[in-house]
Design goal:
Layout lengths: L10 H13 L5 H4 L29 H6 L6 H4 L1 H24 L15 E2 H12 L2 H32 L11 H49 L1 H21 L2 E2 L2 E2 L1 E2 L1 H28 L19 E7 L5 H4 L1 H20 L3 E8 L7 H10 L6 H8 L6 H8 L3 E6 L8 H4 L4 E4 L17 H13 L7 E7 L24 H6 L4 H4 L3 H26 L4 E7 L5 H4 L6 E8 L2 H5 L7 E2 L9 E3 L3 H8 L15
Parallel strand pairs: 1-4, 5-9, 5-10, 6-13, 7-8, 7-9
Antiparallel strand pairs: 2-3, 6-11, 6-12, 10-11
Helix pairs in contact: 5-8, 6-7, 6-9, 7-8, 8-9, 12-20, 13-14, 17-20
Keywords: Membrane, Transmembrane, Transmembrane helix
Organism: Streptomyces tubercidicus
Protein name: Sulfatase
Length: 627
């Protein structure tokens, strides 16, 4: 709509026009009612007499407002709410970024004091973003958001690994463990539950990365829009941080001047370099083998004619014996077991071994014990199990004097490592004949596994003695429900366990309280020990030699954050000559090692064992085995 001539004039001309209009006739009412949306400020008319109101620029004409378009969006209808919402989103973005900068990587450090600090990384980041030109600033903001999201994700992974394996996540070597975690979930909560958990985790990861990036970008825009205030705030915070750092100011025992993210990044970088170099280091270690060229007829001469059983008890750690909350009950089982075995004609010696893992990763402990190498990660495990290294079990096979087997109730799929261990036959969960229910992760109760071993191997007549590796899994996390020991003649095909499982506890209820977790862990260890001792009483004979040990300590929920990685180990034999061979080891009599009993690294056991039971002065040369 065309404007009136007087509103098209410059401001200095409008006053003259207004004066002229006052001495002539007023404009018609229709002209005054026309909407004048493009007029300059201070040039609006108002009263019905036609007299213009040039000095009331903030009072709009009533007719002009009547013709203005009505607000259509939520922001237009509720401008105050829109402003409050925008401020709330900015605050939430700041909280998210601050939390990510201060997030620790261990659950024990997840306290309010950790988040009441000043992160130096945030100060430097804000200064950098304020100094950069617009295009570079946008790129840096996005990169910083993604990087901060990844750092927060790695911190969460560290928390999980510390809680389960008592160590941080290895960004190079630990990715393969997620497959094992999914398998654990399938065995514990079923396929549907495991799938839902995986989908949920993936969604959370993507959401974390997206939200962190959006948060950094939003804060960058706000800082640029209020650059003066942002610059002053950055300078003040930088000064406060330097002062607090110089004076060592702390809040609730935590330094106020934080370098949390920088320290964690540096730690991750060091671990990354160490992991990348570990393969070469391990290759050199594995090349040294004192028994590589030992002739078969010189291997294990002190055990010829004996049935030798190596038995691992899942999560049987030192805490089960030393922790006051569990010690009395577990010690009672060991004391009673020592006496029961003595009455059956067996003697025993016990000691301590330090496992390379804790909370999980049983296969790392098994391979360390058998290979004589420190297998602390998945890369080392893959390397050693695909090599020609002679593990302890394979030494029995190479001698030609034993048949070898493995009882592996926790193995549900193909297990090619059986060839590395020198096992002629492996009985996994599908070969034990078990028809009973699954006890959480543990598919087969320990007593049934030992009964199946007797039925399938130990109780059968053979022309050679037996060497077997047996894995007992009833003491595996989550320790609920727990089987109970019953008569050996009641086991049948395992169907009897349906009622026993039904009477057991729900793991979801147990894990609501750490005290309940420790109680059920202790009960599971007691069950496994009872089962093994009872087996030796019933089926052991004068030629039976048993070596049993824990593979690792349980999770920190049971042990606490600073527990050792020691596990008990015991050797049980009917023939006194067998124990005489280890008289120099300094081991304690009985099944319970004492507090002053020597502690060895687990990887030293193979060489000590092969040496103790190899040829010694005065031994008669064993006959060369026939093939």
């Amino acid at each position: 709509m065309p404007h009136s001539t007087r509103f098209s004039q410059p401001p200095h001309m409008q006053k003259a026009a207004t004066t002229e209009a006052a001495t002539t006739e007023a404009p018609p009412p229709d002209d005054a009612a026309e909407p004048m949306r493009d007029e300059p400020a201070g040039a609006r008319t108002g009263d019905t007499t036609g007299a213009p109101i040039a000095d009331a620029p903030d009072e709009p004409a009533a007719d002009a407002l009547a013709d203005a378009p009505a607000p259509t969006g939520w922001r237009d209808r509720h401008p105050a709410g829109a402003r409050a919402g925008a401020r709330a989103v900015t605050v939430l973005a700041a909280v998210l970024v601050l939390a990510a900068l201060l997030l620790p990587n261990q659950l024990t450090r997840l306290t309010p004091g950790e988040f009441l600090r000043i992160p130096v990384e945030g100060i430097f980041g804000a200064a950098l973003l304020l100094l950069l030109p617009p295009r570079a600033r946008r790129v840096v903001a996005v990169v910083a958001g993604v990087g901060l999201g990844l750092r927060a994700l790695l911190n969460c992974l560290d928390m999980g690994f510390y809680s389960v394996l008592a160590r941080p996540f290895d960004p190079v070597l630990d990715w393969g463990l997620f497959g094992d975690a999914v398998s654990f979930l399938k065995d514990s909560i079923g396929q549907a539950g495991a799938t839902g958990a995986v989908i949920g985790v993936v969604a959370l990861v993507l959401a974390l990365l997206a939200l962190m990036t959006l948060a950094v970008v939003r804060l960058t825009r706000v800082m640029v829009r209020h650059s003066a205030v942002a610059t002053r705030t950055t300078l003040v915070l930088g000064t406060v941080w330097i002062t607090c750092a110089a004076l060592g100011v702390q809040l609730a025992g935590v330094p106020v001047a934080s370098t949390n993210t920088a320290d964690l990044v540096q730690d991750s970088a060091q671990r990354l370099r160490a992991s990348l170099a570990d393969q070469q280091v391990f290759a050199k270690e594995a090349h040294v083998d004192a028994f590589r060229d030992t002739p078969p007829d010189q291997l294990l001469t002190g055990l010829r004619g004996k049935d030798v059983l190596f038995t691992f008890i899942e999560s049987y750690g030192r805490s089960a014996i030393d922790d006051p909350a569990m010690a009395s009950q577990v010690d009672a089982v060991l004391k009673d077991g020592t006496e029961r075995l003595r009455k059956a004609g067996f003697a025993s010696r016990s000691g301590w071994l330090t496992s390379p893992t804790a909370g999980g990763g049983s296969w790392l402990a098994h391979s360390t014990f058998m290979s004589g190498l420190w297998i602390k990660n998945q890369q080392r495990y893959r390397t050693v199990t695909s090599s020609d290294r002679m593990p302890l079990t394979d030494a029995f096979k190479r001698s030609g004097a034993w048949r070898t087997s493995g009882i592996m109730p926790g193995v549900t799929r193909s297990w090619p490592e059986g060839k590395f261990y020198g096992l002629d036959h492996v009985y996994d969960t599908h070969h034990l004949g078990y028809k009973g229910p699954q006890f959480s992760w543990s598919r087969v109760p320990d007593q049934y596994s030992l009964s199946a071993f007797e039925r399938l191997e130990h109780g059968k007549p053979h022309h050679k003695p037996l060497m077997s590796e047996i894995i007992l899994v009833s003491s595996h996390n989550p320790w609920a429900p727990i089987p109970k020991t019953i008569g050996w003649d009641q086991l049948g095909d395992g169907s009897v366990y349906h009622g026993i499982k039904k009477a057991g506890k729900d793991p979801k209820e147990v894990w609501k309280d750490p005290a309940h977790v420790r109680t059920e862990y202790r009960r599971a260890i007691q069950y496994s020990l009872h089962s093994l001792i009872s087996y030796m009483e019933k089926y052991g004979n004068k030629n039976t030699v048993l070596v049993f040990l824990g593979d690792h300590q349980p999770v920190p929920t049971v042990t606490g954050e600073h527990a050792s990685r020691d596990v008990p180990v015991a050797l049980v034999a009917h023939d006194p000559a067998v124990l005489d061979r280890i008289s120099g080891w300094g081991w304690q009599k009985g099944l319970k090692p004492g507090p002053k009993t020597p502690v060895w690294r687990m990887d030293t056991f193979r060489d000590r064992f092969l040496t103790a039971y190899g040829p010694q002065a005065g031994d008669s040369k064993p006959p060369r085995p026939s093939h």
